[in-house]
Fold each of these.
Amino acid sequence: MTGHAGDGATPAVECEGVTRRFGGLEAVSQVSLSLAAGERRAIIGPNGAGKTTLFRLISGEMPVTAGRVRLFGRDITTTPCHRRTQLGLGRTFQITNLFPTLSVLDNLVLAALGLGRTKFSMLRPLWTYREPRARALETLDTVGLADRRDGIVRTLSHGEQRQIEMALALLTRPRVLLLDEPTAGLSPAESALMTRAIQRLDRTITILLIEHDMDVVFDIVSRITVLHLGRFFAEGSPAEVRQDPRVQEIYFGAGEVTPC
Amino acid sequence: MDVAATRAPMRLVTGLAVALAILAGLAPVLPSYVVILMTEGLIYAIAAASLDLLLGFAGLPSLGHSAFFAVGAYTTAILVTRHQASFGAALAASVALAAIVSAAIALLVLRATGIYFMMITLAVALCAWGLAYRWVSLTGGDTGIVGIPRPRVPWVGLASGTLSFYYTVLALFVGCLALYLLLIWSPFGKTLVGIRDSESRMRVLGYNVFLHKAVALVIAGAFAGLAGSLYAYYNGFVGPSTVDLAHSMQFVLMVIVGGPGTLVGPLIGAFAITFLEKMVSVFTERWVMVLAAAYVVTALWAPRGMLGLLRAAR
Ligand SMILES: Nc1ncnc2c1ncn2[C@@H]1O[C@H](COP(=O)(O)OP(=O)(O)O)[C@@H](O)[C@H]1O
Ligand SMILES: [Mg+2]
């Protein structure tokens, strides 16, 4: 876990000229980005700036059109998504992406199975395996959903589903965690709880956070990268970025009322 | 070990054991044409349940399942009539060949998802029919392969009688059922449901979704091959009509009418449709129309199949 984190010179995540084209649209254009191990960084930018697409390129859900992606110095540009997860890359989704027909516990058990060999076993019922179940229950406790373990995920509230979204990512034991608007659609109270939960995560986990709520961003990260129209636009501390008139302009220019 | 988690499976096993006891105990007192139909029902139940692994569990809407049934049926027909293969050898070869063909086809069809997956698997079913029809030297073309004798079964001898063949099929059915249950309860079975619910989430959790789907296709293909092999023995004749598109649709319908993703539903669906076909054909030639009507009724009023209806009624 700390083997790489101790090597301060190697960035945890490195994007070099990363580009993604959709037909005529360049959704992500020549973005370069470097995160030190253990760093907590936010990515902001108006809707359509290419933030989610950049996450997909880093996580391998989508191939890059050009550029390179490195994880702890290792080139993963063409590594398939599931292998990147095994290399320590975790991610949550902006639009809740769970297993809606399964129980909360089964959702977490599937997450706990993802990294091991047990997932291929066909010889014994799942409920006879102790380890994934124990890890799932433990995580269920930490996100405070222990009493909902047998509920079918489809029937849970949006707030509860956002918590499971986070729990699934944590069960993959990420060293780098990509969080795509974790507070999307949450009430102010729920949002505050989510922020606390992220703050309390293991400090060795490198976090890249997409978030619109500047209060959340301030509480979690030390640096912000601004994207606009798919391009790198600005970078700095939260205070610098908030005061940057150019940043205010792109937000208001895009018709969005955000306090940054 | 989670004791609470075993409750539903235990109920299911109890229910299945009762149903199997009835199927086994009733046969000697039933008229032989009913036993013959029950034999056919069991064979189709093996095939329908294997399709349910894809359609209901993994969310892979395959319309090409008759192709693997065809591989099993023709393999057995050819080996038995031309090479005097034993029952065990014919079964094993049918299963193995269906699995191999299924693996090769998986590489092709898994490039597509959703409606495109349906179209490609449909094309696979059509190819199987086309080969059966045109590859005359191997398949006998339109004439098919006739004169497949009943199998010689260990401990039983020649299962030529209606009852002895029925019990042979029933025994294999029980074996398949046990394997199906093991599969859907296993970690691997759960990963298929995960893929059905969200492929993108599975990938991000570290699953090689393609591999899991391919393994599911191979397993389902192997079981369909076994069903096809038994069908060849049952019917005594294998021809293009055994493997036409209507057959593929019939498998899909058995799953949908019974209740996809339930395993038991498709077993019931297979029996229901087998009996319905025979009853309807007394009155009309238009079986396909009746099938279509059954599909429309299910889609409109019982989207979760007969098992869904039963559960709702409770
Ligand atoms: N799969 C796709 N196909 C075509 N266009 C896409 C696709 N995904 C995103 N886009 C486009 O790329 C741009 C950036 O989208 P996205 O990365 O979701 O923005 P953000 O997350 O910053 O709001 C948008 O204009 C969007 O319409
Ligand atoms: Mg987005």
Note: The longest strand of chain A covers residues 25-35.
Amino acid sequence: MPQIKTVVGRRSFLKSTAMAGGGMMLGFSWLASCQPLSEEEVLAMPDVWFDINSYLKIGDNGVVSILTPNPEFGQNIRTSMPMLIAEELDMDWQKIVVEQAPYHPEKYGFQFTGGSSGIRTRWESLRMVGATARYMLRQAAAQTWGVPLEEVSTDAGTLYHQASGKSAHYGEMASAAADIPVPEEVKLKEISEFKIVGKSHKNVDGKNIVTGKPMFGMDYKEEGMLIAMLEHPPAFGLTLKAVDDSAVRAMPGVVDVVTVRCYPESYEKASFDVNAFPETVAIVGRSTWEVMQAKKKLQVSWEPIVSRTEFVTNFGGVKEAVSIPAGLESTEGHRAAMEALAAKPGKVVRRDGNPEAAFKKAAKVIERTYSAPFLAHNCMEPLNAFAHVSGDKARIAAPIQIPAFVIPALSASLGVPAENISMELTRMGGGFGRKAYAHYVVEAALISQKVDAPVKLIYTREDDMTNGVYRPAYQATYRAALDENNNLIALHIKAGGVPESPLFANRFPAGAIDNYMAEEWKIDSNITIGAFRAPRSNFIAGAEQSFLDELAEEMGKDPIAFRLDLLKRAKENPVGETNEYEADRLIGVLELVRDKSGWGDKKGNRGVSAYFCHQTYAANVLDIRVEDGKPIVEKVYCAIDCGVVVNPDAARNMAEGAVTDGIGNALFGEMPFREGAPVKNNFHNYRMIRMNEAPKDIEVHFVENEVNPTGMGEPPFPPVFGALSNALYQATGKRHYHQPFLGEEQVIG
Amino acid sequence: MEFLCKNSFSSTYLPFNMATIDLHVNGKKHQVAVDPNTPLLWVLRDHIGLAGTKYGCGVAQCGACTVHLDGEAMRSCVLPVSAAADKKITTIEGLSEHGEHPVQKAWLEHDVAQCGYCQSGQIMQAAALLKNNANPTDEEIETAMQGNICRCGTYTRIKAAIKTAASLG
Ligand code: FES
Ligand code: FES
């Protein structure tokens, strides 16, 4: 049985004061209950809550409240994280309520939603929380009953002493348990002992969602709160010059017009302090519609930015110089610049064997170039944040993926000490990476400080779509050398983008080919970019998996068999020592998807793809038909290896969503630029996948193993791009090298 | 429609003409004093305090703001509040008392939601569909639901839930 230390991060596991007092503070983050209780029933709960630790409160009636640490944006961790605690607590799931923990790094560690890292990083620590509480409850029972600790057992929220027949529910021992010292070590359950983890549990917020309860940042409201909206430059490469607010100030409901300047001169940026428009104009008023009307009338003039170099501390803590050129960029210009760089030697990031020699002696060389445009995140909930700054204190409530990362910018911009900033983490109406770049929180706080009132900043859809932090534009050229027997003897990848390269040089097919070279290049830009569901992988997977498909065809091999051959080589006799993936697990998902989809037996237009990212392995087989130039995805089979599957039905939901989202972005996703301006600004011109274009059926299968769980938010997304393009080729005879595969008016085939 | 045109016409002359408007929302009467051009969405959210109806695009392109007006699905983000006066408005909060509408029950059964932001609009659209067509085909479901975007990609579950709701009656 795994024995683990009771620490959170560097600190010892915090023990709270014994009694939380009567009743529970019901904040904005509604209580979510694990069974469909009516609100009255939920609220008619305990008279007294006992704080067992910072994550757990036990009511005198045996109801347990779990404070879940990481913010929720739809990946369902508000259910799966409490499941980990409840499992080790040995609790009846029906008697659990879930609350969202506020931002509090000392109590809750790194409250980070992104990188598919939630369950992976909390797997042991949250189980430890439950196991610790269970130990303390058992200890309390042992002392109360005067029996040895070893003889006290638990089941579903009740303590038992078999020999004497004594029993008590957790609520009855909670008061005594709160006084028990926190043990230095606890034992965790074996996977085979799990009762909750591994079984599907419904979303604890399901009822609140279907009944329209306020829970998103956009829904946040306080007495006396004003509404603010921003006007940002219409194009990248421009900044604020002057404001004429005379027409606006007199408009009904308008309270103030203020300029907002994020980040003081001396502030040293970190990699998530991305903001193309640090200087903007805010209109503050009494109601959303009045502010929207005033926004249309505001007169602002803009001027070109000057080129500059910023020093940004990256994720790894290293300071990097980032050059930001002046000028108004366009998609045409980007294309030309990418072509030019692709034709020159890049920076070699990996080289195995002697690729040059292999290409020289090749009987055949196949070369293909793939590209993809900038993408907007388009979370259905536009950016927004509530802030109330008064004196040297700031109170925030916002949809935010990584609260810790906005604190330095907030503190520096407001002149408020970091420890005086409190933050409530509302549910996010989607994040996909966008809400990791929380300049909107800084903006809201600055506005509140200037107007000295509680303020909710709302981005209109147009503001949200044209503000930046896009998925970069990418391009990759794959070259393969075949000998006279049609064997693959070398592979060369040269990839780059605006302004970052999509390359993962040490991922498959690196390790499977004797002569391999990977080069990269990048183009500076003033268009801001950031993480977008499976960064970089979301492009390179599609390019690589399309190329392998074409290669298999050229070599006369079955596409799955060809991939398996390469992976077998990588497993048995890998080339190089820095390969990042486990070939065995990639083989596992390919074999699973092959078997489940009846590959080889079933005919039709099908495409396959497999990819590894964020420590999870995923493969797809996609069946398509084309009707009147419209692609109809009839079925998608997914095979996934994410280790232990904590909440299977929720994990399936993530995979289904990722597949659908991927098909949508591959077919339609595109943010072009003209004269620095984003060409699309709302859903009438930015095409999103809709129900009639979604797959008719998606089947998700998991590899069964006992490996520690990894994430599900991103990994099922990248492979579908390749599966789709490969299936489209089968249906139409035409290969698709450039995303989006289907423009506004075009038809397929 | 005629009323809508008249209203927007008058707005060019009286852009901020405040008016007192009587609304019937979820069986309750409300009186609001607002510019009559204010979209119903913002009156619901800002003035009446019902935040279940969501803002997604403001231009009738995403369906997040869907409500029922005399039983028909409407995009409240482009519906001037004056056009909703004296009509029966139903929002997600009023679809049922405790979430027991067949569509809500089916949504829970299929555990449809991911982020959940689009779901009140999806549910209102689905409920209106089933009211007019108790047993829709796949194609009819797709046509009716085309105006509702879900970035999280929950469409397959939404479709399955609508079929379950149809069977629940
Ligand atoms: S907000 Fe009304 S349709 Fe998008
Ligand atoms: S559930 Fe997130 S947008 Fe639909």
Note: The longest strand of chain B covers residues 19-25.
